[in-house]
Each structure stands twice: as C-alpha cells, then as structure tokens.
TrEMBL record:
GO molecular function, one term: alpha-L-arabinofuranosidase activity
Class of the enzyme per the UniProt entry, highest EC level: hydrolase
Pathway listed: Glycan metabolism; L-arabinan degradation
Catalytic reaction annotation: Hydrolysis of terminal non-reducing alpha-L-arabinofuranoside residues in alpha-L-arabinosides
Annotated GO biological process: arabinan catabolic process; L-arabinose metabolic process
Family matches, as Gene3D superfamilies: Glycosidases (3.20.20.80), Golgi alpha-mannosidase II (2.60.40.1180)
Keyword Glycoprotein included in the entry's annotation: yes
One Pfam family from the record: Alpha-L-AF_C
Name of this chain's protein: non-reducing end alpha-L-arabinofuranosidase
Location of the Alpha-L-arabinofuranosidase C-terminal domain: 420-620
InterPro entries linked: Alpha-L-AF_C, ASD1_cat, GH, Glyco_hydro_b, Glycosyl_Hydrolase_51
Length: 626
C-alpha cells in the first residue's frame, strides 16, 4: 500500500478521544477499585438485599447477631453486629473474622483501620491480619477500649505487617476478652495505602493500570447502575457524600448492595488523580425496567440535578456550595460534561425522552450552566438540543465493528457523539458475518485479540472523525474474577494485584490512546480500506502519528508511507501489537497471568524517496510516529 500523508487539511481532534466508563458492576467498585478491604463493613441492607452477616464468621466461642440497637450508629447505618460469648463459661478471646473481598492483599506497609463499638467493655481489642490457611499472623495490634456505655465510640488504628504474606488468602480479625458482656460493632474498615494516599481512596495497582491507558475522561456513575432496576432505586448523589456513617448504601442494579463509599466526591477525586475530565451522568426519569415518570413527577428530579450541580459547581455562598465546603472542598469541582440518563433509547423510553424528559433537563441545566455540554443518552443525533452531544453504545461482533469503520464519515457535524460504551462481546458467527450479538448465548469470558483488532479498526474510524467524536470508552472497565455479572471486561482482577489481567483490548487502547495528535491530516492511497485501516494526524509540524489495524488479511501487508515535509533519512518509531492468533486472549490460568499480546517497537528511517517502509502481519495494530 502506497500512502501519502498531507501536513494540513484535516480536522481538529477532540482532546478527549480516549476515556473510561465506570459503574459498580462485577464488584468493580465495592470489592474492586474502591480500596476498602472489609466486605460488608457496615451491614448495609435494603428490602432487596437484606442486611446480612455474610461473609463474617465468629472467632472463639462467640455468637454473632445482627441488631438494630435502640441507639444506632447513625440513621444511615442502623444495623450492627452483636458479638457475645456463646455461653457464660466461655473464656479467652471472642470476636469476628472477615475474609475481605475474596482475600486480602497483605504486604509490609501500613493499613489504616477503624471500627465503631457500642458496649461497656473495658479491656483491649485486638486486630489482626492473618493467613486463612495456616492462621499465621502477619500483623497484630492491641487497642485500648474507649467504650462508654450507651454510646458508639470510634476506634482508629494502624496495622503494619512486618512481612508480605505469600498470597492473598488472608483474613482480618477483631477480637476482645470474653466475660465482660457483649459488644456491638459497626463500620469496621481497613484500607491499604491508596493511590496518591487519598483518604477513602482507590486501589493503587488498579489506578496505575488505568493511568497506563492515558484516559481523558471518566463517565460515571453508570450505566445501568445509575438507573436502578425494577427495585426503583436510582443512584442518589446526596446519599453518597459526607462521612461514611451518613451513607446508607443502595441496592445496586447488578445484584448486590452498594456501600456508596465510592461516592460523588470520590469520583471527582479519582478524576483529579488521573487528570481526567469528569463526565457526570444523572438520572433521567426512567428506571431500567422501563418505568417512566410523568413530566410533573419528573420536575423534582430535574431540580435535584440542579442541586447536585450547585453542590459541585456553586459558590460557597449557595446552600449546596456551602455543603461542599463543609465537607472540605471549598473550591468548586471542574465539570464540562453532563449526560442525561443512560440508554434512554431502550426499554420503550425513547418517546418520553424526546418529548419531555430530555427537554426538561436540557432547559433547566443550560439556563443555569450554559457552558456545560449536555449529552443525551440515546445515541440518536436528532434527539439532542443545540450545542450538545449524544452517547452511542455498541456491543457487537468483530466483523460488524469492522463493517462500521466509515459510520461517522458523513454524519452531520452539528452535534458531537460520545461513544460511551463499546466492546466486542462475542466472536463472529460463521456464515453470518454481520449477525448481531445473541444476548441469550454466552459472551466471551476474555476479550480476544481479533476482537481487540476490530475495536481498533472501529476506534481508528472514530479518530478519523475526531471533529464529531467527543471520545470513546470501552465498557465494562473492570471485573472481579470472584464475582461478576458481565464479561468480557477491560481489566480483570482479584484481591491479589499479581493476578490482574490486562486484556487484549486494554493493550490495543493503551497503544492508541498514548499516541495522540492535535488534528487529522488527509491520506491519499492507491488502495481501499481493508484489510488495512488507517488514520494519520499531526501535532507540531513534522510530528506525525500514523495508526493502522490489519483485520482479515491473507498475507502480510506492505506499507510505503511518505509524509509531507519529511525527507530521506527522517526518523520514525513503529510500535506493533500482535498476538499468536485472533482467538488468543490474555487470561488468568491457575492464578498465573498469561499475557499473549506482544508489543515490539522498531526504529525506522525514511528511504531515499522519503518514505517509511514496513510490513504488518494479519491482526496487527500499529502506530508509526515521526
Ligand atoms: O456495560 C454494561 C451495561 O451495558 C451498562 O450498564 C449499560 O449501559 C449497557 O447496557
């Protein structure tokens, strides 16, 4: 293929071309990136997921009971565990044990913990991190009881193992001396050092993995988890802020109670930590099952969104801006993008969305915050207001992704498009190359390499239209391998950071997202797109970025690329991703990460005609920078 790349004449590219989508699915929040190590720390429950003792177990001859004491820890956290000696003859230590989120990663570093206790116990409490297999104790600390009868007292501690545990099959223990009556406990919490040491922050290793993707935005907090399921529990912003004692949690859409420890402010701190633009989604008046509010019933929720925006953006002289300041954040948070709902084109919601729901939000928000970009959730360019954008989602098969390479080439330039969720979820169906996803059949467990290449073809198509595409984010981002509802996912993990699997799709996005440019430039060619697909961009004069993906080629594809203004001897770097074959995946096998994606960087020099020459095998994703 002979290509000639111009130096000007393309489109200015969105600075947000690659970002992240996050919601609590697959225990990606609780038990995932949110670094809390204790599972079910505050016995939060609802009619849908009643309070439970699981996974706590008794230590010594203790009896554990859930209780709603006459003096609750808080109205948000009314349920606690009562730990009592099983009989009057019980001697020694009694207490309770927590296995973490399917294990606890124990390293020689400080763990910050706390628990609330109610009782008149006057001895010492002991907290420990120990092996679930051998009971070997890695750290133990005695804490003098501060209990005072009739009131909840917080006990804070730092637990510092002297050595790393050999694996993550570890537990947390809290115990005390039997014989002085029972003690109630609540909000039993333990954090490892978090990313950038943010209090109530995120797992260091998973944040570093995200940082590797060079993301420009974070779309949160859902996804379906924003909407609330048939339970009618939408995500409620003001129940996710303030001290943990004032967060009741809610029944998440994905089958488990959410603690909401990872709340609105934590999302904004996460954005600050990774230098991402927040893209905040708000509930649009439709529950996931399709129940829709009338216009009059919706009005208070529109108002609630204005309150949320005042909380985030308002001066401290406003009621909600002052609430923000009282929580330690006097400076307003940055916010440019707000999305109204999630997938309101589905479940019969499109008509009410277009006729009044979106309009009500649009009019109220744009009047109060004219500089915000308001994003509709339908992916339908006709449903949005002026100067706004729409969110298009696509879960599909590799061949279909590739067939959609030119999807954005001729759309009107009047509105922007966010590709807020995309992923290859099943492999091609033989003889029906463009058949859609069969949602009753299993999806892929792990992203496959041909799927990642097809996503790259799709992404290159989006990049070619960087004037209309605001950005794109793969979804879902995370899966806890011990408990998940949706595969495939970008990053899979357990409690043990050594078991984190960065998927084939992760590597492809990492390559493309770390090779940004300011504007596309025209490429003339003597061949059509397919099996090679490409885009070229420029930042400063002479600094070109050429990206290509090869999908379904029967032989290696030779390239000869001349860049306007670059002469013989010009230097370039070609970085190529490949895998053994299209169906290979990065996986976890018997606890060991098997990484199939190979990345090779080669220094290139332009030939006598000033062109760069190289060949790419089938299923390659490559970036040439000059
Ligand atoms: O990413 C998983 C789900 O897919 C999201 O929650 C939803 O928006 C989409 O249907």
């Amino acid at each position: 293929i002979n290509l000639t790349v111009a130096s000007t004449g393309g489109n200015v590219t969105s600075e947000y071309m690659y970002g992240l989508m996050f919601e609590d699915i697959n225990h990606s929040g609780d038990g995932g990136i949110y670094a809390e190590l204790i599972q079910n720390r505050a016995f939060q429950g609802s009619t849908e997921f009643p309070s439970t003792l699981s996974p706590w177990s008794a230590i010594g001859n203790a009896t554990l009971r859930l209780q709603n004491t006459s003096v609750p820890l808080s109205s948000a956290l009314p349920t606690s565990v009562n730990v009592a000696a099983a009989s009057e003859k019980t001697k020694g230590k009694i207490g309770l044990l927590n296995p973490g989120w399917w294990g606890i990663d124990v390293k020689a570093r400080p763990y910050t913990g706390s628990f609330w206790a109610l009782g008149s116990y006057a001895g010492t409490f002991t907290v420990k991190l120990q092996s679930a297999i051998t009971n070997q104790v890695f750290a133990s600390l005695d804490i003098t009881s501060g209990c005072q009868a009739g009131m909840w007292v917080e006990h804070k501690f730092t637990l510092e193992p002297k050595m790393d545990a050999p694996n993550s099959n570890n537990t947390f223990v809290l115990e005390f001396d039997a014989g002085q009556g029972s003690v109630n406990f609540n909000l039993i919490s333990l954090f490892p050092p978090t990313y950038k040491n943010s209090p109530n922050g995120n797992r260091q290793d998973l944040m570093s993995a995200l940082k590797g993707l060079n993301p420009s935005f974070l779309r949160m907090p859902g996804g379906n988890n924003l909407e609330g399921d048939s339970y009618h529990y939408r995500w409620v912003w003001n129940e996710t802020i303030g001290p943990l004692t004032s967060r009741p949690g809610r029944p998440g859409t994905w089958g488990y109670e959410n603690t909401d420890g990872l709340g609105l402010i934590e999302y904004f701190n996460w954005c600050a930590d990774l230098e991402m633009e927040p893209l905040l989604a708000v509930w649009s008046g439709m529950y996931l099952g399709g129940d829709v509010l009338s216009a009059s019933a919706l009005a208070p929720y529109v108002n609630d969104t204005l309150n949320e925006l005042e909380f985030l953006l308002g001066p401290t002289t406003t009621p909600y801006g002052s609430l923000r300041a009282s929580l330690g954040y006097p400076t307003p948070f940055p916010l440019k993008f707000i999305e109204i709902g999630n997938e309101d084109n589905l479940s019969g919601g499109a008509t009410s969305y277009a006729s009044y729901r979106f309009t009500m939000f649009y009019e109220a928000i744009s009047a109060a915050y004219p500089s915000l970009t308001i994003i509709s959730s339908t992916g339908d360019l006709t449903a949005v207001g002026p100067d706004s954008a729409t969110d298009f989602h696509i879960y599909t098969l590799p061949d279909y992704f590739v067939s959609q390479f030119g999807k954005w080439d001729n759309v009107p330039r009047t509105h922007k498009v966010l590709i807020g969720e995309y992923a290859n979820v099943q492999y091609n169906v033989l003889d029906q190359p463009l058949a859609g996803v069969n949602w009753s059949a299993p999806k892929l467990m792990w992203p496959v390499w041909a799927g990642a290449v097809s996503e790259s073809v799709w992404s290159i198509g989006a990049e070619r239209n960087g004037d209309v595409i605001l950005g794109q984010s793969y979804a879902p981002g995370f899966m806890n391998l011990n408990s998940f509802e949706w595969s495939p996912d970008l990053i899979s993990f357990t409690a043990d950071p050594a078991q984190t699997v960065l998927s084939t799709s992760y590597y492809a996005i990492q390559l493309l997202s770390n090779a940004r440019y300011n504007a596309t430039v025209p490429v003339s060619s003597d061949a059509d797109f397919g099996p090679a697909y490409w885009v070229a961009g420029v930042s400063d004069p002479g600094q070109y970025t050429f990206k290509t993906a090869i999908y379904n080629s029967t032989s290696a594809v030779p390239f000869n690329i001349a860049f306007d203004g670059l002469a013989a001897g010009a230097k370039g770097t070609l970085t190529v991703l490949t895998a053994p074959d299209g169906l290979s995946s990065n996986t976890l096998v018997n606890g060991t990460v098997v990484d199939v994606v190979k990345k090779i960087a080669t220094a290139l020099t332009a030939n006598e005609e000033g062109a760069f020459e190289f060949e790419l095998e089938n299923y390659s994703v490559a970036v040439l920078t000059t």
